[in-house]
Design brief:
alpha+beta, six-stranded antiparallel beta sheet, 16 strands, six-stranded mixed beta sheet
Length: 708
């Protein structure tokens, strides 16, 4: 049986039947009869508030259809036995006499009211189905919330209406279903307060089961007493029913208050910020529904007998309560609850203070003056306005601080911060710029004492890339933490007292972390790749622990930063490779040009040497002067060839990075003269004439052989 009740298909089929029941309830409400004039209960009498034939204002209703009347509920109970259009005998006391009057019963529920009932009820039911389908099949919270939505929907749409004269005894059946829903709702709500946002151990295991048993007993008793009263011709039977019904109201109202207190207890004892945010949605929903009813309906009715807004508006406002609960259960991050809760709470309390001050000033003025004139009321209102204007900002400021202290422990939007990091972190192309952005942003968001981002360079050195209020950790810290971080699989290690309960991390050695004023360290790595960096953080300035959302944000930033560093380094590597490729292309081109040039330059002296050597072989045909000249030419070309070969060797050494230079102080004059002597033959061939003029010495620091 239990497995059937937990089956989603069965639940949805049951919901379909509930829709049919609720539509029948709307039909029942449309058939609810009543009389035209408005009634009020005052001094244990039912009094006519406004004149409407055959009634006059302040008529006191004594009897209806022969039944003595004590309350408005008595009249409604008797009317609900009849149909719209029936004539009813009513006895009223007017001044000092009793009058027998007859009045036709009319439909007292307007079309707009019925539409409001229908819309509000189906909002509750629809949100219950939505939560049930959005959560996993075995989710207790979703199921309990769904059943609460069902019972509240029934409570709204099968509210007291005509119970007699409907086909198939529909009126009696709907009234009994109404009693069942009313009995179960408070207990379901209390159970939800123990399940959400995290299941709490009940101090008494039998508490919920006992309350469910009590609600069933109450439902059976009230249903029996109602049927007896409906069939009875004695109004006292109805009074007995109402006594038990109102007693049940008080009991289950106490259960509702207990549940609300339990939600607040869960909020102030919550260890995780995500739990507190969920509960802020719950508190907001409770404030909108019950408080809206009290402020806009109940209090004005007590003070002036007239509500500030019509009942239809109260119904529609109450539908915001399940919406807030549904958001809390399914997707509490969908809106910035902190801002909504903060502003609404602050200005609600400020408004209450303003109303109290204004009421006190007006009451005090009335007590002093005795009678209000138009002039006196204007002066009083002006004085009250000035006082309120002077007190408004101080009151708002103090309440804001109180709300911040009691309800808010972090002051940033998690989703917005995460999105901003993810979007902006990829626009940097230098590790230094990326590091400054990451540290600046985290420092301002988390409000911590100190923060540092360490990056591992290519030469395996750890450098502080960017930071705030942080100095170089001591060698012991580096040796233990950085080495441990490189070996450990855990991305986070921290000091326990700075961490919220429920966060997974590696315990850090407080003796090492404390001297360096570090609360936690997280590694920067890509999956199984080696660690490329560390984020070092001090405690929060507020000295509150790091929350689960803080750690989620830090991990997200660390992961995105790791990918960004890897991307930047890959881009730098690609740029270096491209530059190297361009350099190699240029060297290849220069080599080709050099080989071509050297080949030509080598061919020229070789040709000259070969030619003059062949001439010298035939000594009979040349004179001694010509022989000396030819030998000088061969010597000059040989020196020229030697220089070309040395240049090629030097170029090869330079290209391989093997060329070594021995710097010393040298005089340029002898070197220049030696070069000129070496080049004498080439200069002579070119028919150049050289005139020289220089000082005794020109001293520089250079490699003598390379310079020559």
């Amino acid at each position: 049986m239990i497995s059937i009740l937990q089956n989603k298909k069965f639940i949805l089929l049951f919901d379909f039947l509930i829709v049919i029941v609720c539509l029948c309830g709307i039909y029942q409400s449309s058939e609810k009869p009543g009389i035209s004039p408005l009634l009020k209960y005052q001094d244990d009498e039912v009094i006519v508030k406004s004149p409407q034939k055959p009634f006059l204002k302040n008529d006191r209703i004594i009897q209806v259809e022969g039944f003595s009347i004590r309350t408005i509920e008595d009249i409604e109970f008797i009317f609900d036995r009849h149909s719209i259009g029936d004539q009813i005998d009513i006895v009223v006391a007017r001044d000092s006499e009793k009058l027998n009057l007859r009045s036709n019963l009319i439909s007292i529920n307007s079309t707009f009211y019925l539409i409001s009932l229908c819309l509000t009820g189906f909002i509750f039911l629809g949100l219950g189905i939505f939560v049930l389908k959005s959560r996993s099949g075995d989710d207790k919270v979703a199921k309990v919330f769904h059943w609460i939505s069902v019972t509240v929907c029934i409570h709204i749409m099968t509210t007291f209406g005509r119970y007699a004269g409907l086909p198939l005894n529909l009126g009696y059946g709907l009234r009994i279903i109404f009693f069942l829903a009313s009995s179960l709702t408070p207990v379901l709500f209390l159970q939800l307060s123990f399940l959400f946002p995290k299941e709490k151990r009940l101090p008494f295991k039998w508490l919920i089961k006992g309350l469910y048993g009590l609600s069933i007993v109450s439902f059976i008793l009230i249903s029996y007493l109602f049927i007896e009263a409906a069939r009875s011709s004695n109004i006292n039977d109805f009074h007995v029913f109402m006594s038990f019904y109102n007693g049940g109201r008080w009991i289950f109202a106490s259960v509702m208050i207990f549940a609300i207190v339990n939600f607040f207890h869960s909020y102030f004892k919550a260890l995780e910020e995500s739990e507190r945010r969920k509960l802020r949605w719950v508190i907001l929903g409770l404030a909108i529904g019950p408080l809206g009813f009290i402020i806009l309906w109940q209090i004005p009715q007590i003070l002036t007998s007239v509500a500030l807004v019509p009942e239809e508006a109260i119904l529609l406002i109450s539908s915001l309560t399940p919406l807030a609960f549904a958001i809390s259960i399914v997707r509490y991050h969908i809106l910035d609850i902190d801002r909504i809760f903060n502003r609404s709470t602050v200005y609600f309390f400020v408004l209450m203070i303003v109303l109290v001050i204004y009421t006190a000033i007006v009451a005090l003025s009335a007590l002093i003056l005795g009678t209000f004139t138009i002039r006196a009321s204007l002066i009083t209102s002006a004085i009250a306005s000035v006082i309120i204007a002077l007190l408004f900002e101080p009151a708002r400021s103090r309440i804001q601080k109180f709300v911040d202290k009691k309800f808010f422990r972090i002051r940033y939007n998690y989703r917005l911060a995460q999105s901003e990091f993810t979007q902006q972190i990829h626009r940097f192309y230098q590790v230094s710029q990326l590091s400054r952005f990451v540290t600046d942003k985290l420092y301002s968001i988390l409000m911590i004492d100190r923060l540092g981002l360490y990056i591992l360079e290519k030469d395996r050195r750890w450098i502080l890339s960017a930071g705030h209020e942080i100095s170089e950790p001591d060698d012991i810290f580096k040796k233990t933490v950085f080495k441990f971080g490189e070996r450990s699989e855990s991305p986070l290690f921290a000091v326990k007292r700075f961490m919220e309960v429920g966060i997974y991390y590696e315990d850090a050695d407080n003796a090492i972390f404390k001297p360096n004023k570090i609360a936690l360290v997280t590694t920067l790595r890509i999956q199984n790749a080696p660690v490329c960096g560390f984020l070092l953080m001090g405690p929060k300035k507020s000295r509150l622990p790091f929350t689960k959302e803080d750690i989620d944000l830090i991990k997200t930033v660390a992961s995105e930063t790791s990918f960004a560093i890897e991307r930047i380094r890959m881009q730098e590597e690609l740029m270096i490779q491209e530059a190297e490729a361009r350099r190699l292309d240029e060297i290849s081109r220069l080599k080709s040009y050099f080989v071509s040039s050297v080949s030509h330059d080598l061919q020229t002296p070789l040709t000259s040497i070969k030619m003059f050597a062949e001439i010298l072989q035939n000594k009979d045909q040349i004179s001694s002067g010509e022989e000396s000249e030819y030998l000088e030419i061969i010597q000059g070309e040989t020196d020229r060839l030697s220089r070309l070969i040395n240049n090629v060797l030097d170029f090869s050494r330079i290209e391989r990075g093997q060329m070594k230079y021995n710097f010393e102080k040298i005089n340029l004059i002898p070197l220049i003269e030696s070069v000129l002597r070496t080049m004498h033959y080439q200069l002579k061939l070119g028919k150049f004439k050289i005139d020289t003029s220089w000082p005794d010495e020109i001293v520089i620091s250079a490699d003598k052989d390379a310079f020559a």
